[in-house]
Write a structure and sequence with these properties.
- 4% of the residues lie in helices and 53% in strands.
- It is mainly β and 135 residues long.
- The protein has an eight-stranded antiparallel beta barrel.
- A hairpin with a 4-residue loop joins strand 2 (43-51) and strand 3.
- The longest helix has 5 residues, at 3-7.
């Protein structure tokens, strides 16, 4: 399924896998382990991501329809502010998808929301919505 493709694991996190600084303050609004559900059209699934102090992201997502699990990697462009841009790369076998999205978290909230888009090369842009809660 192309659920991950629209899920951002191509763009949501992974387009920018480079290290992201923490501005020297050690502050990262999104740092931690997060779990959530995602939806793109009729496709749904779950995701677990870990956002590290430097803004890098690792994790995996699962397609509820066929049980396929994809590895995620990426980065948060500026982990000290909300909303901020996030880049994701989703990989399963030889397939890699890139996603770009925006995540928003209120101060002191234990959850954040994101919307990600990915172009599958056909000119069709897929949008994925995900809500994460602190694990």
């Amino acid at each position: 399924m192309r659920i991950l493709s629209l899920l951002v694991f191509g763009g949501l996190l992974l387009a920018g896998c480079g290290g992201i600084g923490d501005n020297g303050s050690g502050f990262n609004l999104f740092r931690g382990t997060w779990t959530g559900d995602w939806q793109s059209g009729a496709d749904t699934g779950t995701a677990t991501v870990q956002i590290h102090l430097d803004g890098s992201i690792s994790g995996q997502i699962t397609d509820s329809h066929d049980g396929t699990t994809y590895t995620l990697s990426g980065s948060v462009s500026n982990p000290t502010v909300s909303p901020t841009t996030i880049h994701l790369k989703e990989k399963s076998g030889d397939t890699t998808l890139d996603f770009t999205g925006v995540i928003t978290k209120e101060d002191h909230a234990n959850a954040f929301d994101g919307t990600f888009t990915e172009s599958d090369g056909s000119g069709v842009v897929q949008t994925i919505h995900v809500t994460f809660e602190s694990a």
